[in-house]
Amino acid sequence: MSKINHIAIIMDGNGRWAESRCRPRIWGHVRGAAQISDVVEAADHFGIKALTLFAFSTENWCRPKEEVSSLFTLLRKYIERERQKIIRNKIRFRVIGDIFGLPEKTRDLILDLEEKTRLSTGLKLNFAFDYGGRSEIINSVNKFIHQSPGQLISESDLYENLYLVDSGDVDLLIRTGGDCRISNFLLWQMAYAELYFTKTKWPEFSTEEFRKIYYEVSLRQRRFGGIDTPLDLVSNLVEAKAHKASMQHKVE
Ligand code: FPP
Questions:
Q1: Mutate which of 71, 75, 85, 93 to test ligand 1's pocket (most atoms within 8 Å of Cβ)?
Q2: Cα–Cα distances in Å, from 90 out to 118, 119, 212?
Q3: pLDDT confidence of 220, banded at 50, 70, 90?
Q4: What region does 72 belong to: left with phi over 0, alpha with psi -120 to 50, or beta?
């Protein structure tokens, strides 16, 4: 079995789910937001280290104003509703992305909960909000250039300047709603992720389906570019480097 430490989810299909029931798209988001709590609880029970949920992308600003502001409101309501439970369950809460475009009250709630759970040792729960994977990478490079002018950037320098330095690489990406793409989500962290696309639209995504996907993907053999099953990506890279060095030595 391969170890899954970090799951990322693209919670897609809210709008189509609502439209197919002749309801406004916003209704789909309301029902979608109501699913999140059970999914977080299930992830906590699996014992994984991190769960990252895509709630609003940099591209979602193109949507009608009412839809955008309903997503802001749902984020605020989610935090107000779940705050105590998150603290009690020792969940470490983070929002990644540009939270400065959010209404002040929501931003304050986010910053307060991030601070209150800063030392929590349980599941790391990350919401990606006004988030884009490319801009995360660009920000990281710019931070590095600012700190170390004139130096060449390494993979670990880049990684250390990303938003989610303590959640690690993504092991499993789940996308609901039937589309098979990663939509600018966690591009760096997903280099070796297992991908799982389900036709289920997010408002109908159940914890049973989540559990089934989790166990099914745990059984996949992950080789990280090798032919045996290594412990993880890092140990495989260390071994790959050592082999390269020893083979180059022989050729010389
Ligand atoms: C995609 O549905 C989903 C989103 C834009 C974000 C996910 C949002 C939620 C689950 C609700 C908000 C919850 C919080 C806590 C912020 P879509 O509208 O793209 O669906 P479609 O592909 O059917 O149009």
A1: 71
A2: 10, 9, 25
A3: confident
A4: alpha
Q: Is the CB of 26 under 6 A from ligand 1?
A: no
Amino acid at 169: D
Q: DSSP secondary structure string, 83-103?
A: HHHHHHTT-EEEEES-GGGS-
How many Å apart are CA 183 and CA 15, to the nearest integer? 17
Residue 203 is classified by DSSP as G
Among 39, 54, 110, residue whose Cα is nearest residue 79: 110
Asked if 63 and 29 touch (Cβ cutoff 8 Å), the reply is no
Q: Can you read off the two tokens belonging to residue 124?
A: 């790391």
* C-beta separation of 196 from 9 below 8 A: no
**Ligand 1 mutation target, pool 9, 11, 14, 197, most atoms within 8 A of CB:** 14
Question: What is the structure's pLDDT at 92?
Answer: 98
At residue 10, what is the residue type?
I
**Exposure of 132 in the CB half-sphere (CA atoms within 13 A):** 8
CA R_g for the chain: 20
Q: pLDDT at residue 231 above 80?
A: no
pLDDT above 70 as % of the chain: 90
The token pair that represents 134 in the structure block: 């490319």
Distance in Å, CA 202 to ligand 1 centroid: 8
Residue closest to 130 by CA, chosen among 185, 48, 202: 185
Residue that the structure tokens 């983070």 belong to: 94
